[in-house]
Amino acid sequence: MPDADPNAGTPFAPAIDAHVHVFPERLAEAVQRALTTAAGWEFPHRPIREATEATLADAGVERYVALPYVHEPGGARSLNAWLAEQAGDSERLLPFATVHPDDEDVGGIVRDAFEAGARGLKFHCPVQECAPADPRIEPALEAAAEYDRPITYHGGTAPMYTEDPHVGAAAFAEVVDSYPDVRVNCAHMGTYQVSAFLAMAREHDNVYLDTTFAMSTEAGRTMEFDPSTIGDEVLIELSESIMFGSDLPNIPYPYRAERAELLGRDLPTETYRDVFYRTAEAFLGVA
Ligand SMILES: [Zn+2]
User: Fold this and answer.
1) Which CATH number fits domain 15-284: 3.40.1580.10, 3.20.20.140, 3.20.20.70, 3.30.70.670?
2) Any idea where the Amidohydrolase-related domain is (predicted)?
3) 223 CA to centre of ligand 1 in angstroms
4) Minimum mean pLDDT range among 30-34, 49-53, 223-227
5) Ligand 1 mean position to 67 CA, how many Å?
6) Does 1 have pLDDT greater than 50?
7) Residue 116 scores a pLDDT above 80
8) What DSSP string describes 235-267?
C-alpha cells in the first residue's frame, strides 16, 4: 500500500526525485535487512519498483533517478541490463549505471550501459572502496565526459564514514578539478562536511548536492544532522545546485518526511521549482 500523501499538490509537485534505489527484489530485501541489522531501522516501504512508483506517483513525482550499485566485481553488466529493462516498463524511471572499480573493462561496461539508455553513473565510494577520482574508474569518468552523463556519488562522510579515506570534500575536489566538464552530485548535501561542499557548489557550476536524508525531518534521529543549519538564504542562493532526493525505499520513515522540512520554510516559488524539479533536469541534461 502506498502511503496516502497529504502534501501532494503543495509546491512540491510536479517533482523529480534524484535519488531512489531500485534493485531486484531479493537483493533489495537483503539491503534493507543489512540496514536493519546495522542501524536498527524499520522500513515502511517495500523495496519493489511497483510500490516505490506508487508512493512517488501519489506525491506528484513525475520522474525519478534509479541508482544501482554493485558491492563486488562481476555483477555490473547484469544489474545494468536489469535496470534498463525496468526502465522500459516504466514512464518515470531514469536509470543510472553501476560499475565496480575492480571490474575488467570498466570503460566498456559503462559505455555499453550508456548505449543501452543509462542516464548517468553512480558510485558508492565507501561501499565500493574507491575515491571519486580513483585511477581505476578513470575510464568510467572519461565515458561520462564523452557521453555527457552526470555522476552521483555517495561522497560524504555521513553517516558512519568519518574515518574512510574514500570520502570527504578533499577527495571530491579531485574529481571536480580533474573533470570540470562532468556534472557531479554529492549525495546527502555532502554531510558531514556541508560547508566545504556548499563552497564547492558555489564555485563550480558542475557540482551538485542532493537533499537525500540530510534535509528530512528525521535527519536528527537517523543521522544526527540538523537540516536547519542550512539556512533559507543558502537554498535560495544555491537553488540551481541543490536538488531533491529521498533514498526511497530505504528510509525508515514516510516519504513525505523527506520534503516536509523544506516545505515548512516558505521559500520563494522559484527556489522550490529549482530544488524540486529544474535543478535535477539540468543535472540530468533532460530539460
Ligand atoms: Zn542512496
Assistant:
1) 3.20.20.140
2) 16-285
3) 13
4) 30-34
5) 7
6) no
7) yes
8) HHHTTTTEE----BTS-SS-TTHHHHHHHTT--
